[in-house]
Write a structure and sequence with these properties.
single chain, 802 residues, mainly beta, 4-stranded mixed sheet, 4 helices, 56 strands, disordered N terminus, cell membrane
Amino acid sequence: MLGSQRRGLGTRRLLLSLLLLAVWEAGSGQVHYSVAEESKHGTFVGRIAQDLGLELAELVPRLFRVASKGRGDLLEVNLQNGILFVNSRIDREELCGRSAECSIHLEVIVDRPLQVFHVEVEVKDINDNPPVFSLREQKLLISESKQPDSHFPLEGASDADIGENALLTYRLSKNEYFSLELPTHSKQTKRLSLTLKKYLDREKTPELNLLLTAADGGKPELTGTLQLFVQVLDINDNDPEFEQSEYKVRLMENAAKETFVIKLNATDRDEGGNGEVTYSLMSIKPNGKLLFTLDENNGEVRVNGILDYEENKFYEIEVQATDKGNPPMAGHCTVWVEILDANDNAPEVTVTSLSLPVREDTQPSTVIALISVSDQDSGANGQVTCSLTPHVPFKLVSTFKNYYSLVLDSALDRESVADYALVVTARDAGSPSLSATASVSVEVADVNDNAPAFAQPEYTVFVKENNPPGCHIFTVSARDADAQENALVSYSLVERRVGERALSSYVSVHAESGKVYALQPLDHEELELLQFQVSARDAGVPPLGSNVTLQVFVLDENDNAPALLPRPGAGGGGGGGGGAVSELVSRSVGAGHVVAKVRAVDADSGYNAWLSYELQPAAGGARSPFRVALYTGEISTTRTLDEADSPRQRLLVLVKDHGEPALTATATVLLSLVESGQAPKASSRVLAGAAGAETALLDVNVYLIIAICAVSSLLVLTLLLYTALRCSAPPAEGACAPGKPTLVCSSAVGSWSYSQQRRQRVCSGEGPPPPPPPPKTDLMAFSPCLPQSGEDCSNPSGEVSH
């Protein structure tokens, strides 16, 4: 009963220990497996997914992957069952040499969220390497005078395995003269040697052939052999002897060639040639390379190659001293050279698992990449610290020994910085310290956070009327600071009504180029200003947009000829229609008397609507007693009429505007000359009114001149200000042609206009724009219009409202 309780208590303690061990391993974040070297492909190593607490279903979605620095693809994971298996041949001696411990360190990485696990797979040694002697055969020169129990050192075999598999035993072929003395493993002060059991007799046995066999402790055991040729020499019975059997020397790695190591000294008690000693190298372990030289005369050992602490930390040099006796005798010693570490290896930086590109709306603390550092040196020379380029929105976070995560530290803005060239610097603690760098290029992916923007909120465009349909009048352009499809801008009209019609019936905009086209000929007399908006939107998700306003001024062209107006209240003796005016004129009127007036209007504006009147020469070249005022159209006498003048006068008045080219109309005026008593009263009233008008004109001219000067000064100031503003604004795109905006003012006493011709960008055909005409400034005054026989003067001749 008591024994049963004790067994139960022991079981609970064992379970508790196993539980604590599992908790400790989980906390350390490391899983340990073991596998024998030379295992076949597919050999089971461990259920890595289960041991790491991962579900099989999430291995592929979370991008389960295994990385092993410098180990290639020795191990692999089956993502279907989560089993770690052997993928290719594992040679423990190739991986770790003669190191007592040999492990493969794996990094298991999964995403969403990013996790890193460290797995250690111990590689177990198997007995796959036989003992190997450095030589196939060895020749021994032994004097017959040697005493029994004399020892003759032999070079032992080496086995690349470790542990029991490298524990060597030796056997000597059966003979009557020699036995084998095995080395002890305490301090290696006793070496493998032959022991003479009895005196040699050269005359009886001049030489011996022996076979030395080395067997390891593996199961089954493996063996290696060395052929020994023993030559029995005649008496030279003293061997050269070194002052000590072993020498120890410390030497810095990377020592220069010919660097002095040690001077050996061996003495021989014989005299003459039997006492003269020469030195030779028997072997250099572990790799047999001739990294040292030995002067055969003075025994000096010097460096002959490159000593690398990271390759080998110790060298064993076997030296033989031979006298010049006949036969010669030899003595042996061992020189142990310890290599001291120097800081001759810069750190190495490896960047893995880059998550690129990085969206500009990525949240801080997001892991961008994993970085590992290493240094082949030891001690302080192998202690590495890692740093990052300053003044960047990233930082390094240490996650494990010599492992770092590159983490986003602050918000990104692609429009400010589109990519970052980061430099990771690893520096060791040696003196002087060495460093290495690795460049990481981080591209910032665009997010649609910028709307298209126009250079200015409003553009003014000038277009001549009567443009061809489909004429290009302007190009709008918006810039989007984003990239790719987020910066792909398309244009469209902001639809609205223009009077009774839709805006899209007047203009259109090309969705890609932003070119604005007039779909139909524009008529200045119908539409002087067309104002609308163009929208620019990008192709992002969701799309962003903005609007710009276009003011299209339709410039007038001389496309309307002057139109003659009938005389208001025509009756009595004169009646006019269809361009003919009839009047009765008394022969008694004096020179300068107004007898009739031609009225005409022009639907155009500015210079195109400014009319002038010319009297056509009479048939036969006869000089007419009448003239017409240039700008008012009033017909007056040039002299006193007499009996010689024809009673019926037919006058042709040419009405012409100032357009380019000018358009004209012709008015016919029929004048009947009558005696003064025959003139109707209405004609008397007209003549009286004309006389009164001439008198009133003298009084009004002074005020008109003052008014013209004041208004002209104000207008010039306004035009200068407007010109300065236009010059400061960017030019509007479109074809170019001169425009002639004209300001026309009217009053009850006359009309005047001020025209400033200047070049504007307007619609025209293909090719370069024509040169602008020289600017001109015209101040025009028209004679006042006074009512005659009840005429309406609200719109005097040549007046056009703009």
